[in-house]
C-alpha cells in the first residue's frame, strides 16, 4: 500500500474542480493539463447570482434581462429580470475561484487511475479521496481512450464575433443544424455565436461558417467540444465524479456551468467532512450519490423537452415557446429554473 501523499486529489481545474477545491481545507492537489482559466470551451453564460455569490462578480462582462428564442420565422422574448443572466470572462472567473482555495495546483496531464494512484505525465500521486472533474472524458472514472457515445453527448462549436446585442438568443433552425440549436451570447465587446448538435455531430465548422457568411458576420477563432446531455454516474468505485465527468450538464439548454459549480460545492462539503474525519469515505460517497439522485427526475424532464425540440416541427416549437412565455406559466417555471443550484445551498442568492 503506497503512503498517502495528499488528503484529496482533484483532477480538472475548471468549474467543477474549482468548486470542490474551494470547500476543502488541508493537503489537497489540484491537477489540470492547462493553466487555470487558460482554455475556454464555453460561452460562459450563467445566472448573475452565481458569479455574485461566489465572489467573482468582477468577471462579469454583460448582464442579460431578456432571452429571445427564434424558431423558424417566429421569435419569442422572455423576461429574465427576476433572475437575470450574465456572460463572464472565463479566465477571471476561474482565477477568482482558485484564489479562494489553498490547494496545490500542478499543471500536468492525468492518464488514468491505477492501483489507487493517479498517474500523470509528471509522476503518480495518491490520496484517500479522489474527485474526477475532468470534463466529458472523465479520465479517472472512464479510463483512457474514452469515445463519446453519440446519443449521450452534444457537440458545441462557437466563435467570437463583433455582433453587439443586449439580450441572449437561442435559435432553432433545421437548415443550420438538423437536431440542435444555435446561440448568440453577447459578451460586451461582441458576441459568442455558436451551434450545438444534440445528436453529437462534431463536424459543425462548415455549417457554422455558412451561417456566418449568410448573416454577413466576420468570425474570430472557433472553439468547442463535447458535453453530456444525460446524467451519468456520480461515483465510480471510490471516486467522486462532478460536472461533465458525471454527465451533470443540463439537457435542452446545455447549461453545464451551474450544475458543475453546484454539485462541485456540495461534493466539496462532503469531501471536507471526510478529510476532517467526521464521516468515512464510504458514507461520503453514499451521501453524494444520494444528493445527485434527487435530481434525476428533473434531468429526465429536461431530456424529454430536448427530444421534443429535436424532433417536433418548427410550427409546434413556435407554439410551445409562445405558451411557455405566457405570464402565469412563465412566472412559475422561470424562477424555478433560474434558481436551480441555489435553493437549499449555503450559497443561495438573497432573492432565493
Ligand atoms: C461551445 C460550448 C458552449 C457552452 N456554453 C455554455 C454556457 O454558456 N453556459 C453553460 O452553463 N454551459 C455551457 N457549456 C457547457 C459547459 O461548458 C460545460 O458543461 C462545463 O464547462 C462543465 O464544467 P466541468 O468543470 O465539468 O468541465 P470542463 O469545463 O470541461 O473542465 C474540465 C477540466 O479538466 C481538464 N482535463 C481534462 N482532461 C484532463 C486530463 N487528462 N488531465 C488533466 N486535466 C484534464 C481540462 O483541461 C479542463 O480544465 C458550453 C459548452 C460548449 C462546448
Describe, in plain words, how this protein is organized in 3D.
- This protein has helices at 15-21, 48-53, 90-98, 139-142, 205-215, 257-276, 281-293, 296-311, 314-325, 327-338, and strands at residues 8-11, 28-32, 45-47, 60-64, 66-71, 74-79, 85-88, 104-107, 110-114, 117-120, 123-125, 129-132, 153-161, 168-172, 180-186, 191-197, 222-228, 235-236, 239-241.
- With 352 residues, it is an alpha/beta fold.
- Helix 1 (15-21) packs parallel to helix 6 and helix 6 packs antiparallel against helix 7 (281-293).
- Helices cover 31% and strands 26% of the residues.
- Strands 6-5-14-15-16-13-17 form a 7-stranded mixed beta sheet. It has a 6-stranded mixed beta sheet with strand order 8-2-1-12-19-18.
- The N and C termini lie far apart (47 Å).
- It contains 10 helices and 19 strands.
- The structure holds flavin-adenine dinucleotide.
- Residues 11-17, 31-34, 41-46, 109-110, 133-135, 137, 139, 156-158, 185, 194, 224-225, 227, 243-245, 249, 254-258, 260 line the site of flavin-adenine dinucleotide.
- Flavin-adenine dinucleotide is lined by residues 11-17, 31-34, 41-46, 109-110, 133-135, 137, 139, 156-158, 185, 194, 224-225, 227, 243-245, 249, 254-258, 260.
Amino acid at each position: 500500500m503506497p503512503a498517502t501523499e495528499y488528503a484529496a486529489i482533484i483532477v480538472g481545474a475548471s468549474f467543477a474542480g474549482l468548486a470542490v477545491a474551494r470547500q476543502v481545507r488541508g493537503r489537497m492537489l489540484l491537477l489540470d493539463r492547462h493553466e487555470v482559466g487558460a482554455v475556454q470551451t464555453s460561452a460562459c453564460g450563467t445566472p448573475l447570482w452565481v458569479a455574485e455569490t461566489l465572489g467573482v462578480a468582477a468577471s462579469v462582462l454583460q448582464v442579460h434581462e431578456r432571452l429571445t428564442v427564434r424558431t423558424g420565422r417566429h421569435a419569442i422574448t422572455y423576461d429574465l429580470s427576476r433572475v437575470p443572466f450574465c456572460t463572464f470572462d472565463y479566465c477571471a472567473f476561474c482565477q477568482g475561484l482558485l484564489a479562494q482555495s489553498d490547494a496545490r495546483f500542478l499543471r500536468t496531464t492525468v492518464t488514468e487511475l491505477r492501483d489507487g494512484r493517479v498517474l500523470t505525465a509528471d509522476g503518480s500521486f495518491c490520496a484517500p479521496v479522489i474527485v474526477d472533474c475532468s470534463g466529458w472524458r472523465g479520465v479517472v472514472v472512464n479510463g483512457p481512450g474514452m469515445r463519446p457515445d453519440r446519443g449521450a453527448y452534444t457537440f458545441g462549436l462557437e466563435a467570437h464575433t463583433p455582433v453587439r446585442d443586449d439580450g441572449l438568443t437561442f435559435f432553432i433552425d433545421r437548415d443550420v443544424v438538423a437536431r440542435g440549436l444555435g446561440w448568440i451570447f453577447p459578451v460586451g465587446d461582441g458576441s459568442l455565436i455558436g451551434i450545438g448538435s444534440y445528436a453529437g455531430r462534431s463536424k459543425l465548422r462548415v455549417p457554422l461558417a455558412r451561417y456566418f457568411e449568410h448573416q454577413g458576420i466576420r468570425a474570430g477563432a472557433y472553439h468547442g467540444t463535447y458535453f453530456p446531455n444525460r446524467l451519468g454516474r456520480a461515483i465510480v468505485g471510490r471516486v467522486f465524479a462532478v460536472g461533465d465527468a458525471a454527465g451533470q450538464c443540463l439537457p435542452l439548454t446545455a447549461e453545464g456551468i451551474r450544475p458543475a459549480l453546484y454539485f462541485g460545492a456540495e461534493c466539496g462539503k462532503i469531501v471536507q467532512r471526510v478529510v476532517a474525519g467526521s464521516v468515512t469515505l464510504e458514507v461520503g460517497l453514499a451521501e453524494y450519490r444520494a444528493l445527485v439522485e434527487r435530481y434525476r427526475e428533473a434531468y429526465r424532464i429536461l431530456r424529454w423537452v430536448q427530444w421534443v425540440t429535436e424532433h417536433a416541427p418548427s410550427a409546434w416549437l413556435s407554439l410551445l415557446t409562445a405558451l411557455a412565455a405566457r405570464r402565469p406559466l412563465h412566472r412559475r417555471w422561470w424562477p424555478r429554473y433560474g434558481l436551480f443550484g441555489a435553493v437549499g445551498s449555503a450559497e443561495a442568492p438573497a432573492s432565493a
